[in-house]
Write a structure and sequence with these properties.
single chain; mainly alpha; two-stranded antiparallel sheet; 5 helices; 2 strands
Length: 152
């Protein structure tokens, strides 16, 4: 299974996890957790947008204004305005599930427009960045599930 098919699969699993969250638990922040279900869902979206733009500058970031809420280092306790509605985040995640594979089909072996570096590891191809968002998706899907279970 290539990484774009895996992205669709993992995104579907994330969307399934979000469908199991009770609305009253979206913004619950249990002790010891820096963020909420809503933050994790929005973070998945905005992180994938910006990383895929690094992979290919022709990939246009949609909803860049959401970075104020969901970029790395942000947290709900710092929000000064209302965040996007969960329905809007879910619709964006669904749209992105198709948009990323459509945009990057046939481009996985291309060099990235801008490398993404973590420590000494240099992700400098489209495929390496897609694989990173797969890893990232799994982490935050797990956090969404854990937050939902903690809030029950």
């Amino acid at each position: 299974m290539d990484s774009l098919k895996q992205f669709r699969l993992f995104r579907r699993l994330t969307l399934n996890a979000l469908s199991e969250v009770n609305e009253e638990n979206l913004d619950v922040q249990p002790k010891g957790h820096p963020n909420t279900v809503r933050w994790n869902a929005g973070h998945l979206y905005i992180a994938a947008e910006f990383l895929m733009n690094k992979a290919d500058r022709d990939y246009v970031v949609k909803r860049p204004e959401w970075a104020t809420f969901f970029a790395p280092g942000t947290r709900p306790s710092d929000w000064e305005t209302d965040p996007p509605a969960i329905q809007d985040i879910i619709l964006a995640l669904e749209e992105q599930r198709d948009r990323i594979p459509e945009h990057f089909s046939g481009k996985l072996s291309n060099p990235a427009s801008e490398a993404f570096v973590i420590g000494s590891y240099n992700m400098n191809t489209v495929d390496s960045l897609v694989n990173f968002i797969l890893y990232h998706e799994g982490i935050h899907c797990g956090i969404i599930k854990a937050l939902n279970n903690t809030s029950k």
